Amino acid sequence: MFSWSAFETPPNATEETAVMEIERKFLVEIGAVPPDALASPSTPIAQRYALPGDVPVGVRIRRKGDAWFLTFKGPGGLSREEVEFPVGASEGAALWSLFAGGQVEKERFAYPCGEHLFEIDVFRGDLAGLVLVEVEFDSEEEARSFQAPDWFGAEVTDDPRYFNATLSEKGLPGGAP
C-alpha cells in the first residue's frame, strides 16, 4: 500500500536538487540526425504527469534506466525552476500507478558536440515519429547566442504543444510527424 511517509532518500542517492533549467528545444527529422549521434550512449525514459497540460507547476514521475525521480517544474520555456528528488523503486512504482496522465516513452541519446551536450529524444509509443533535441545552458545569454547546427529543425522551446506534459495529455500536435 502506498504511503507518503514511505518516501526516503534511496541508498547512495543525493538529496533533492533545485536548479534553474535553461534549455532550448528543437524539432529534428530522424534522417537529419548524424549517424554517430544515434550510436552514442542512450537511456530509455518513461514518464507520467500528475498535472498534465498547461499548469503553473508540472509534476512528473520519471523512470530513467533503473532510477526513479519525482520532479517539479515551474512555468516557462527557456528558463524555469526545477526540483528533482530521487526516489526508491517501490516509491517510484507506487507513484507511477497513481499518476493518471498520459505516458511519454522515449530513448534519450547523449551526443557531445563541441562545448555542448545535445540530448536527442526519439519518442516511442503514441508519440513515435517525434524527435526533439534539447540543449542546456549555464545562462540565458549563452542560450540566446547559441547557433543551432544545420540539422536542427524548427525551435519549439516556447511552444507548449511540445512540452512533455502536454504531449502526454494531448499527443502529437497537428502537423507533427
Characteristics:
3 helices, mainly beta, 13% helix, disordered N terminus
Verbal overview:
- Mean pLDDT is 84; it is low at 1-14.
- This protein is mainly β and 177 residues long.
- It is built from three helices and eight strands.
The CATH topology is what?
Hypothetical Protein Pfu-838710-001
**What average pLDDT do the residues reach?**
84
Structural class: mainly beta
The dominant shape is: globular
Fraction of residues in helices? 10-25%
**What is the name of the CATH superfamily?**
Hypothetical Protein Pfu-838710-001
| First-to-last CA distance | 41 Å
In sequence order, what are the helices and strands, one letter per element? EEEEEHEEEHH
Number of helices: 3
User: Architecture, CATH level 2?
Assistant: Beta Barrel
Major sheet description = 8 strands, antiparallel, barrel
Strand content: 35-45%
Q: What strand order characterises the main sheet?
A: 1-5-4-3-2-6-7-8
CATH class: Mainly Beta
Unreliable segments of 5+ consecutive residues? 1-14
Number of domains: 1
Using only C-alpha atoms, the radius of gyration works out to 16 Å
The count of strands amounts to 8
Task: Note the topology.
Elements: E1 17-27, E2 42-49, E3 58-64, E4 67-73, E5 79-87, H1 89-98, E6 103-113, E7 116-123, E8 131-136, H2 140-145, H3 164-170
Q: What is this entry, summarized?
A:
The protein is mainly β and 177 residues long. Helix content is 13%, strand content 38%. The protein has an 8-stranded antiparallel beta barrel.
